[in-house]
Amino acid sequence: MATEQVSPQPTAHDAVAAPAAYEAWRKARWEEVAGPNGRAKVVARAMVTGRDPRVVPGLPGQWNVTEAGALTVTAAAHDGVRVNGEPADGMVEVPAGSSFALPGGLVGMAGGAGGTFGLVVMDHDAVTRSGLIGIDTYPYDPSWVFEGEYRAAPAGRRIEVGRLTAPRSTEAVLAPVDLAVTINGVEHVLAVLEDMPGQRLAVFTDETSGTETPEIGRWLVLPLLDAGSTLTVDLNQVTLSHHHLNPSVFTCPLSPPGNHLPLRVEAGERGLIHRKRTQEATA
Question: With respect to CATH, is domain 41-123 assigned 1.20.1740?
């Protein structure tokens, strides 16, 4: 096995020279994790709905949605909240698409409409402080690239899956299609989750889970296509769950019942690499 930092450059120990498209994907993946707005820098997330003021863990002030459907924060001057550069002292509207600053150099962004808003707060020093320097992956191997097919699921199907809250919980998550893929002559069918609108995931475990890869399983991000569509299933692009980046922030879904591949999937990401430690312990 090989330990690699996510990088646009191929490494000498790759078993097969990786195609340029895969190297570009790796570069984009590292940007997603540790770039200027990388997920490893997210220290708080929240959804705000309803007119009752609420306290968001890790954020000063009280947040709510007005009768007119606008997001607001009510804060005192000493709370140190600034919206679009202006200090908040009292109730201040936070328009969708705007930024806000918090004490300690934290930066937040607000988005949403129709009375439902999302808040994301980032600490741009978080990656440096954590010592995160890369992602451990299996070497690229073209034999892990297959053709798959989306198969229709009952309309509105939801599957009860575990969620990585503390303590753990369960939730009925939308699962609009199944992914059928044949590996070594055996067909496997995985339920595909749509945990967030527009994001399809096959969350699965395999015979490496809990030893070489995380026990909680790994992700294969999939495109939005209709049932009956064929698609490329490249297991070299299997990723770690966002949960590993910040467990208290990313309370991701676990693998649905039945989403276990009874083989060793020696492809894709295996764990995070930190300075002063070779690999993050698997969950």
Answer: no
